[in-house]
Automatic annotation (TrEMBL):
This is Alkaline phosphatase. Gene3D superfamilies: PhoD-like phosphatase (3.60.21.70), Purple acid phosphatase-like, N-terminal (2.60.40.380). SUPFAM superfamilies: Metallo-dependent phosphatases. Pfam families: PhoD (PF09423), PhoD_N (PF16655). PROSITE patterns: TAT. PANTHER family: PHOD-LIKE PHOSPHATASE METALLOPHOSPHATASE DOMAIN-CONTAINING PROTEIN, PHOSPHATASE, PUTATIVE (AFU_ORTHOLOGUE AFUA_6G08710)-RELATED. Residues 41-127 form the Phospholipase D N-terminal domain. Residues 144-385 form the PhoD-like phosphatase metallophosphatase domain.
Amino acid sequence: MTLEAPVPIDRRKLLAAGAGGAVLLGTPGISYAASRPLLTHGVQSGDVTERGAVLWTRADRGSRMRVELATRPDFKHARELRGPALTADSDFTGKLRLSGLRPGQTYHYRVRAEGERASDALEGSFTTASDECRDITFQWSGDLAGQGWGINPEFGGYRIFQAMADSEPDFFLCSGDFVYSDGPLVETVALPDGTTWRNTVVEEKSKVAETLDEYRGQFKYNLLDENLRAYLARVPMVNQWDDHEVTNNWYPGEILDLPQYTEKNVDVLAARARQAFAEYTPGGFDAEGRIYRKISYGPLLDLFVLDMRTYKSANPDADGPTGQILGERQLAWLKRELRRSDATWKAIAADLPIGLLVGDGAGAWEGIAEGTGGAPMGRETEIADLLSYCKR
């Protein structure tokens, strides 16, 4: 196929995917203002495979996501795609899942929010995984705006993302803590050399997140940074969550004993955080709504993204007989998919370290290892079982 030919995608699959996105996000009475909508936080792509990808954006009001997709940067022969409704139910975010793409193809996309008038367009690009044995490069990181260090305009913001973009990776794996929902920011931080670090601070970052809007605000804060927005428009992202999307060292069923929280039930906080995570990341979930999933990136690489939070046992019980980190279903899935994989490399993305000892109070452990020595205990038994299975 020449570059002058129409975009090599299956139109029926794409339109079906777009309709599905609209159903998931809901389409209750959209009210369009007379002025033009505005795309507020950039565009992103995520969970890119040989034949699929997910596109993301956010508008400032009720509207509809519209996408032009092309194989040429001048958008000649572009396909126009109808995306989901952007409504208040999803904080005006939306995703369009693409399928039927061509392997190893660079795609350029333009996104608009359409009301009575259309917004200005924002552009991005991504390259699908090749179905041939070609070199793959990806970047891996996490923990953004943590420990009190936010966006400092005097420093140039999150300028590391410009350096990362310059190396032109195939994708970016964010292994959790893409936001610090439990990490309020102050305007100034005194540095040891006598200078001052100056954070940009918004209302949602002035306290720990508890409400759904406060959790949404954590993502909106990071996306204020132009370096990050530019990076995500060029580099597809794979997301998993860790603890700071919710609160430090959390586990299901936990009741907080912290004065900064008025909502003490972690299950309530986690549900709100999970919704914000779903709304503000381009991929993040499989077809069944699970964070753990496999992303096949051609014949050389299968990426297994784990969820080491949702099914975790209580930290005080980490070394007991009920201790677990993955849960029975996720562990069985991982074994099965590893067995089925014929990729040369099988990368397992774990948001918790395997061997690092991380205490969480007297007799409690945040991670997998519990430091007693000897035979594996509690959560360690799951990892020992998995490693033994892989060895066989």
